[in-house]
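Homework help board

Subject: predicted structure for assignment chain

Our instructor gave us this sequence and asked us to write out the predicted structure in C-alpha cell form, then describe one feature. I got the C-alpha cells but I'm not sure how to describe them. Can anyone check?
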Amino acid sequence: MCASRLAKAGCAFGKLPKRSWGVHNISRETKVAIYHAIVITTLLYGCETWTLFRRSVRRLDQFHLRCLRKIDGIKWQDRVTNTDVLHICGTMGIEAFLLKAQLQWVGHVMRMPDSRIPKQVFCGRLAVGSRPQCGPVRRYKDTVKENIKKCGMNPSTLGSDSQDRSAWRSLCIEAVTQFEDESVAVLQHKCAVRKQ
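My C-alpha cell output:
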C-alpha cells in the first residue's frame, strides 16, 4: 500500500516541474499549496484506515522532505536540516498529516449510529477466538490508540469527546500541532547534541 501510494505521488510530483516547481516567478507559498493540493492528497489517499509501522512512516517522510527540498531548490550541499526545511516551507511533517486524518476519521466513526457497519467493526469484539501470543498482528485499533496517546489525548474518553464535531476538530488540530512542535523540538535537540 505504501509503495503504491509513493509511486503514484512520485508520478504526480514528476509531472509538475515545468509548470510550477521550475518556474521562478511563482512564490514558495503557492508552490507548497499546489504540492499539498496535488501530491499530498495523492500520497495520503485513504490514509485514515492505514495501519502503519515506523518504517512506513519513515519512507513517507523521506519522500515528503525530498519533495519540499526540490520545490525550494535546497540541495544536500547546503546542509539544511529537515526541521529547517519544514519551517522554511511553512508545513508540517508527514506523521502530523497522518495523525490529523486518522483522528478526524475516528471521530466521524464514533459519531455514527450504532447500526452502521463501520462503527460495529471499529467498536466490536470477537465472540470466540484469541490472538496469537507471539508477535500478534497489529490492528487498526492499536494504531488509533497509540496515535491518540501520542497527541496527549485520553483513549478512554474518545466516545464522549468526539460527539461534538466542531469541538473534536478543534481538539484534533490543537493536539496535532502540539505533537508536531514536540517532534521538532526533539529533532532540534538531537541535532544540537550531535554538533557538540
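Reply (TA_rk): Your C-alpha cells look well-formed. For the description, you could write something like this. The chain has a mean pLDDT of 86. That's the kind of observation they're looking for.
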